Amino acid sequence: MTTRIVVDPVTRIEGHLRIEAIVDGTKISDAVSSGTTFRGIEKIVENRDPRDVWAFVQRICGVCTHIHAIASVRAVEDALNYPIPKNANYIRNIMTLTQFTQDHVIHFYHLHGFDWIDVLSALKADPKATSSLAMSISSWPNSSEGYFRDVQNKVKNIVQSGQLGIFANAYWGHPAYRLPPEANLMGVAHYLEALSWQKEIAKVHTVFGGKNPHPNYLVGGHASSINLDDVHVLNMERLNLVKTKIDEAQTFVNQVLIPDILAIASFYKKDLWGGGIGNFLAYGGVPLVDIHEPDSYLFPRGIVLNRDLSKVYDLDLKDPNHIQEFVSHSWYQYADKDAGLHPWQGRTDPAYDGPKPPYHNLDQSKKYSWIKTPRWQGHAMEVGPLARFVVAYAKGNKEIKEMVDSSLRKLDLPLNALFSTLGRTLARALEAKFCVDQLAGFYADLIANIKAGDTQTFNPEKWEPSRWPAEAQGVGWAEAPRGALAHWIKIRGGKVEGYQAVVPTTWNASPRDATGQKGPYEASLLDTPVAATDQPLELLRTIHSFDPCIACAAHLITPQGKPLS
Q1: How far apart are CA 393 and CA 407, in angstroms?
Q2: Which of 114, 274, 298, 425 matches a 20 to 30 Å C-alpha distance to 442?
Q3: CB atoms near residue 417 (< 10 Å)
Q4: In whole angstroms, what is the distance from residue 207 CA to residue 95 CA?
Q5: What is the pLDDT of residue 52?
């Protein structure tokens, strides 16, 4: 029996995503991924001062604000050949790793966790047994029998009220849940703790950027003046607060997130579907020295094709034959509808010709998404924590390789288990540990540099447009929590002539290309089991494992409902 199921909107993500899947018997045989809103930020920033663009493009998303701003200022700096001070690089790295750590913890507990954790099952748990389980895997202090009983009673009161609130509209009791009640109770307790913890780590961004979300940035450096004796700028008291929040984050990740992930994964070891396209791309990022020195990156750069870890390919973001965007199945128009355009030649010209909402189904033989289709030399590519870890593993990164091998040994799983929904989730958690453990090092480097007498955070050398060339173009890249991110800019006469952002979810949620090659979301759903077509928990688990950010990949409309043009 063939059934077409529609999930619209997919919840517990950022933005608006529609998934349609064909279920043959008990497995998905085909899938369609559609971003259902239009953005148009590229249009908004045209003819503006390039130094101001970061403030616009960081508002592409309310979650990814920092990393979009960094990509933007780097694009301008690349175009102008504009070096930044050492302290600015340290601060940018601290803010990047802080965002990674916070984002990954939030993603697991608050967006993805309930694909694995059954809240109502937690009501059946024995708090004493839950306490024993928690203490057997971690030294986290909130692990007493009384603590878990209090959490259980809190959840019980919510359920008995009939108003489930944050626990509403889920598939509790679904046969794809594997955890015993005690593990579910532990997961729910840590869900609640993570709600409080995540607002504390965000204070690192407020110290260096003035606020969160949407901290402040600066082309040519960073918008933080350092004077250890001045109460009005970045001083020692503020820097000590940063150190405290880094220490707290390290404790939470190492004593809560990692033990939880390994414990939960041990019950789902047989559910190894969702591997997807098998091609992985990482731009690389978090430069120890300078963004133009890839050998100094914390996250290595490269391409892995067909899950072959014996070969890593190079990429060049400025080469028009490497990165191209297609619109064969996207609601945009190019002069040649099947041609691919490098972002420096890219266009954002909306041309909606899809069905009038509300509609039952999309036609995948036509245009069906507001997300474009990026390709690397014609290949669909997965980006994100799994892609970063695959590239790093293939390039022999000792620390990441040991983290992966050690975790898989504990789970008694082979290396190819990484290529799955479970592996994607494990990689994100391990990356949170990798990032939070690196944070202390960058903080120490910043403090040492300040103590050595260097307090410079801004280079004024090329700030004035009179010092710019008449024409320039550049690209700013970074690894974002969800994957490879780059912004391309063209500058003429001191103004933005053209701008294109190709974001992680553009890669992952892309529709088919002209050859019919599926994007990573679509490919990952093939052969995914579906126990109940009216409760597609397995589908959501796989899609959530990518941490979709459709707000980044799709677009905005005017209050009148018309696309911006």
Answers
A1: 14
A2: 425
A3: 18
A4: 10
A5: 97
Beta strands in 466-520 (DSSP E): 471-480, 483-492, 495-502
User: Other CB atoms closer than 10 Å to residue 124's CB: what's the count?
Assistant: 13
Strand duo 285-287 + 297-299: pairing: antiparallel
Buried b (16+ CB within 10 A) or exposed e, 524-539: bbbebebeeeebbbbb
Query: CA-CA distance, 221 to 229, in Å (whole number)?
Result: 22
CA proximity to 221, closest of 91, 59, 68, 81: 91
| Phi–psi pair at 5, nearest 5 degrees | -110, 145
Residue 288's CB is within 10 A of a number of other CB atoms, namely 16
Give strand pairing partners of 92: none
Who's near 16: CB < 8 A, 6+ residues apart?
A: 9, 35, 36, 37, 550, 554
Query: CA-CA distance, 219 to 83, in Å (whole number)?
Result: 10
CB count in 10 Å sphere of residue 359:
12
pLDDT of residue 556: 42
Listed as ranges, residues in the chain with pLDDT below 70 are 553-565
Token code pair at residue 345: 């030649």
Residue 73 to residues 220, 221, 376, 478, 481: CA-CA distances in angstroms?
8, 9, 24, 11, 18
Report whether 99 contacts 547 (CB < 8 A).
no
What is the CA 433 to chain-centroid distance, rounded?
A: 15
How much is the pLDDT for 554? Answer: 57
Peptide bond into 358 cis (omega under 30): yes
Element (H, E) at 281: strand 280-282
Q: Please check whether residue 34 is in contact with residue 20, taking contact to mean a CB–CB distance below 8 angstroms.
A: yes
Whether the predicted model's global pTM rises above the 0.85 cut = yes
pLDDT at 165: 82
Yes or no: say if 305 and 378 are a contact pair by the CB < 8 Å rule: no
